[in-house]
Amino acid sequence: MTQLNNQTQAQALNPPPRLLMGPGPINADPRVLRAMSAQLIGQYDPAMTGYMNETMARYRKVFKTDNQWTFLIDGTSRAGIEAVLVSAIRPGDAVLVPIFGRFGHLLAEIAQRAGAEVHTIEAPWGEVFTPEQIEEAIKKVQPKMLAIVQGDTSTTMCQPLEHLGDICRRHDVLFYSDATASIVGNEFKTDEWQLDAVSVGLQKCLGGPSGSAPVTLSERYVNWVRKRKKVEAGIRTEGHKDGSEPFIRSNYFDIPMILDYWGEERLNHHTEATTMLYGASECARIVIEEGVDASIARHALHGSAMVQGVQALGLKVFGNLEYKMNNVLGVYIPDEVEGDKVRGQMLEDFGIEIGTSFGPLHGKIWRIGTMGYNARKSAVLQTLSCLDACLAANGYKGPKGEAAAAALEFYAHG
Ligand SMILES: *Cc1c(COP(=O)(O)O)cnc(C)c1O
Q1: Ligand 1 neighbours (beta carbon < 6 A)
Q2: CA 125–ligand 1 middle distance (angstroms)
Q3: What is the 3-state secondary structure (H, E, C) of the chain?
Q4: pLDDT in tens, 161-191
Q5: Low complexity bias located where (predicted)?
Q6: Boundary-marking domain end, from 241, 259, 287
Q7: Residue at 109 is within a domain
Q8: Mind listing the pLDDT tens digit for each residue in 63-76?
Q9: Does one domain contain both 191 and 91?
Q10: CA distance 406 to 284
Q11: How many domains does the chain have?
Q12: Are residues 84 and 99 in the same domain?
């Protein structure tokens, strides 16, 4: 075990200045950090319950929904995923998970841990599914729920969702999407697309720190989970035996209990993570101030400028560009350079972080994000200039000195 000496122990936290241009997390908007430094108030202080209601109203705008049940699950994005899945799935329920990247595997794993009989279909990395492929699988599996990622940062692909709601209604399937990486950076319409449950996180296009998971739930979803028997404190029933539904196998993520806490009843469940609520609420306020559609357009603009820049360096962009998320791009690492050395120099000499990749793409592509607070011209130009210089310093044989110029040209003339 290493012992810290007294001097190290006494040092204040002082993280190095960084520009985070990977697939998330990104730098938080300074306004969010300021909101998070506000003093705590009591759990049932009318000011606090007022903030809770205000947060719900703000996230209805972010999600483009009239769903009453739009609120925060405490925890990182996967807390939202887990709450949605564990509250809805009874042991043995069939769940269909179409997988087109790493986060699809995560949904499948969480559904399985919740006791689901998980069925998956897979698209090649860099591609998405057609509605027909998904409907065909639904017909075969007849699932209780369809669980699908919208934007998967591991492949940079954005799955079109607009035709899936109809299919789910026709086959009486609950429709859930993890839109953590895509919300407010790409179009998302909860009500128009007939989603029953959506969960997100703050650390991508919403421009906050990770640690809060906004969710929105349709009446259809809420009616379903409320039907499931709640465990009385201390009583462990085995479900089924008395003809009731088996209970929800999590206290922390028991959505009916959480609804009683966020609703009029204000029944105590957990202690709301007040500081995270301040941050989450401010993230939504900032997006509403800008306009949800303006935020999406900003991500499209700066994402495209980044693509122009890397292409001017002769680099190839990964995946089917027709379905690329606005806010992240994958770029092939040229053969003659060592990917980790370039990334390392970008971080060390310039303080700029870009992302590596997982699974089949490991060592093959870098991932560069333009999201939230960092979806702006200066961040794009700094990153491109830095990449340009570090490629040149690491033996890259392609074009040099072109990246920022190409992006500037794009900003000027489109
Ligand atoms: C980034 C991301 C997450 C992150 O989950 P955390 O629990 O916050 O780490 C989840 N889902 C998707 C699709 C993501 O892109």
Answers
A1: 24, 76-78, 103, 149, 152-153, 178, 180-181, 201, 204, 210
A2: 17
A3: CCCCCHHHHCCCCCCCCCEECCCCCCCCCHHHHHHCCCCCCCCCCHHHHHHHHHHHHHHHHHHCCCCCEEEEEECCHHHHHHHHHHHHCCCCCEEEEEECCHHHHHHHHHHHHCCCEEEEEECCCCCCCCHHHHHHHHHHHCCCEEEEECEECCCCEECCCCCHHHHHHHCCCEEEEECCCCECCECCCCCCCCCCEEECCCCCCCCCCCCEEEEEECHHHHHHHHHCCCCCCCCCCCCCCCCCCCCCCCCCCCHHHHHHHHCCCCCCCCCCCHHHHHHHHHHHHHHHHHCHHHHHHHHHHHHHHHHHHHHHCCCCECCCHHHECCCEEEEECCCCCCHHHHHHHHHHHHCEECECCCHHHCCCEEEEECCHHHCCHHHHHHHHHHHHHHHHHCCCCCCCCCHHHHHHHHHHHC
A4: 999 999 999 999 999 999 999 999 999 999 9
A5: 1-13
A6: 287
A7: yes
A8: 999 999 999 999 99
A9: yes
A10: 33
A11: 2
A12: yes
In a domain, 117, yes or no: yes
Could you give the CA distance from residue 354 to residue 366 in angstroms, rounded to a whole number?
7
Name the residue with the closest Cα to ligand 1, atom 15. 181
Q: Name the domain boundary from 266, 287, 308.
A: 287
* Cα(363)–Cα(231) distance, integer angstroms: 48
Prediction pTM value: 0.95
In the three-class reduction of DSSP (H, G, I as helix; E, B as strand; rest coil), residue 356 is classed as: coil
Q: Domain containing 273: what range?
A: 30-287
Taken in order 160, 166, 167, 172, the sign of the CA dihedral is positive
Ligand 1 pocket test: pick from 103, 276, 357, 367 the residue with the most ligand atoms within 8 Å of its Cβ. Answer: 103
How would DSSP label each residue in 8-44? HHTPPP-PPP-EE-SSS--PPPHHHHHHTTSPP--TT
Residues 300, 243 within the same domain:
no
The atom of ligand 1 lying closest to the CA of 201 is: 8
Encode pLDDT of 194-231 as tens digits: 999 999 999 999 999 999 999 999 999 999 999 886 55
Q: How far apart are CA 207 and CA 32, in angstroms?
A: 8
Place of tokens 């000011």: 47
Q: Is position 3 within any domain? A: no
Is 34 annotated to bind ligand?
A: no
- CATH number for the domain harbouring residue 176: 3.40.640.10
How many angstroms separate the CA atoms of 373 and 44, rounded?
Answer: 32
